[in-house]
Amino acid sequence: MANNLLQSPAHANAVPFSRPPTPGVHPLQVGFCGLGAMGYFMARNLANSFKSQLPPLFVYNRTAAKSQKLLTEVGASAVKVADSLHQLVTECDIIFTNLGNDAVVASIYNEFEKALAQSPPTKVKIFVEMSTIYPALAGDLDRLLSNHPHTHFVTSPIFGPPPAADKAALVVAMSGDYRSKKEVAFLLVPAVGRKVIDLGGNVEKAPTLKLIGNGLIMGMNELLAETLTLGEKSGIGQQTVYELVKDIMPAPGLVAYGNKMVNDLFDGSVGFSIDGGIKDANHIRRLSAELNCPMPTIDNTHRGLITARAIHQAQVVAGTQQWDILDWSSLIASSRVAAGLNPFDSKKGTGVVRED
User: Fold this and answer.
1) HEC profile of 62-76
2) How many other CB atoms sit within 10 Å of the CB of residue 295?
């Protein structure tokens, strides 16, 4: 995590822009909206990165307790809690948003637009949307904000799970106004992420790459789930298959999600929720349909996610659920049930034992 706002990224190509000019007489006021599983860590790291060099980070969250928790963790010298979205917009020069779904993003930005109409900005104001949204929504938000003077919009979705956000190891995709991207990129790297991928001026490009990347991850998870289940049912054992994965394909995602699957670590409150996975799968399927680009692996993954959620919801009704929120790695429940195994407890209903 960065300790100095002027610290250079570890790798020369981590940020594909030259450094922006030194701030003028009035230092930038930065704000952050959305302190969820990812946003909390990103806001904390941002606040700590420019402590004593910029004013404290303004934060806003619908659940005020999250804002107070962050304030308690980093202190008043690093964070201030905004009373409202209107205050966040009017008092900040750069506003980051990281929110749960498209409907929430649209609602928040409509509130931002009202604040801009009531208090028109007199200097440059940059909005940075970091959520996973459908690309067309990014275009809508850009048009909404462009009606106001001095206002710019950048899409900047991030790749990585909450532990990567905690360690400031995210990969950042970015599209939008060039000067705004320069300003934002050097705030985010290395404070929040390790690299920026520049996708040009069209704000829909970064959300598109985000969906493509998430499709790759969820497709990998589906194949991993099927493979581990076959290993268990054949009598080889899922742990043995997992060890093989680590030996021959030790990609971080495969290792991390494989560990969750073989150890039944399906608590979505500390990972990526299954509802978020289904939302992303729906977006990817819509995008592939609009572009006439079939993605049958995503169709299968969507089925697995829906099946796992249905099983979990039945357990909730019966009062037998182990977790309130499922992690999206729990899609292995679909493969397990289809193979006659227990959906969420791999220790029950062991597979066939092969004879030597």
Assistant:
1) CCHHHHHHHHHHHCC
2) 19
3-state secondary structure of 94: strand
**Cα separation of 105 and 134, whole Å?**
11
The confidence score (pLDDT) of residue 270 equals 87
Instruction: Name the nearest CA neighbour of 58 among 25, 37, 85, 20.
Output: 85
Residue with tokens 């991850």: 217
Integer Cα distance of 4 and 69 in angstroms: 23
Residue 166 to residue 59: CA distance in whole angstroms:
17
Q: For the residues of 99-155, what is the DSSP string, one character each? A: -SSHHHHHHHHHHHHHHHHHS--SS-EEEEE-S---HHHHHHHHHHHTTSTTEEEEE
What angle (nearest 5°) sits at the alpha carbon of residue 311, between those of residues 306 and 316? 120
257 vs 220: CA distance, rounded Å: 9
Beta bridge partners of 94: 30, 126
Alpha-helix residue ranges (DSSP H) falling in 235-292: 238-248, 252-262, 274-290
Residues of the chain with pLDDT under 70: 1-12, 22-26, 349-356
What digits encode the pLDDT tens for the residues 171-213? 999 999 999 999 999 999 999 999 999 999 999 999 999 999 9
DSSP state of 353: P
Give the whole-angstrom CA distance, residue 178 versus residue 200: 8
Q: How far apart, in whole angstroms, are the C-alpha atoms of residue 231 and residue 297? A: 20
Q: What are phi and psi of 89, to 5 degrees?
A: -70, -45
pLDDT in tens, 55-74: 999 999 999 999 999 999 99
> Residue 258 in contact with residue 245, Cβ under 8 Å?
yes
Q: What are the C-alpha distances in Å from 234 to residues 17, 196, 221, 243, 348? A: 52, 44, 20, 16, 15
Predicted TM-score (pTM) above 0.90? yes
Place of tokens 């010298």: 77
Kindly tell me the burial class for residue 166, based on how many C-beta atoms sit within 10 Å of its own C-beta (0-12, 13-18, 19 or more). middle
